[in-house]
Request: fold
Amino acid sequence: MKNKSGTAFLALILIITGVVVTLENFRFINGISRHWPVLMLILGTGFSLLYFQKQRKDPVLIWLGAFIGLLGIFFYYLNFTTWKSLSHDWPVFLLVTGISFIPVAASKKKMIYVLSSLSFITLFLIFFLVFTVSSKLWPLSFLFLGVDLLIIEYVNRIQNIKSS
Reply:
């Protein structure tokens, strides 16, 4: 029964979206197409809800839900600023990937997800500083990568101590 209500909800969203976009195409309403990232937010929320409804909790569902939802927020930002900024804001995709691992790490309580999150966020910081702030900051990439490696080494040591 849950599956039928989910299908009906998705059908309703698609019907409403089709009608609204068609009305905008014929200029009966204006400005609706700027809000298309809302569909990504709904889709991301749907994947996250699927994770919590399933008996076997697949971490891909919660990661995908977070990833699509965060991308929806970023695309919303771009819709109301300018998509031209994507040429220097592209490292945000690395940040979104890293942040998407946080709910997986919280639900599964495995260090690999924390380390994955940390690695992607570190890459974001490196590329953001170099490509967006100033190209003179590239040596800080060594600092971030060094700290990242120290944290990974520390976690590996703790896990080796626990397993012995």
Remarks:
- The helical segments are 2-25, 37-53, 59-80, 86-89, 92-108, 111-133, 140-163.
- The longest helix spans residues 2-25.
